[in-house]
Design a protein that fits this description.
Elements lengths: L1 H7 L9 H10 L6 H10 L5 H4 L3
Helix pairs in contact: 2-3
Length: 55
């Protein structure tokens, strides 16, 4: 849910990478690795940052 909110509120011209999402979640006291963020992102059907980029 928190991961989905982060992606929904990101700048579509500069989407957040898995590493940046992991840093944001750690700031919110969710100790989670980048690989885990990638796994959850894929489970939610959210594409990688490069594919979420809008011009």
């Amino acid at each position: 849910r928190i991961l989905q909110d982060c992606v929904d509120n990101e700048d579509k011209r500069k989407p957040l990478t898995d590493e940046k999402l992991a840093e944001i979640l750690q700031e919110k006291s969710y100790l989670i690795a980048r690989r885990t963020v990638a796994k959850y992102r894929e489970n939610l059907g959210i594409p990688i940052a490069r594919l979420r980029k809008e011009l």
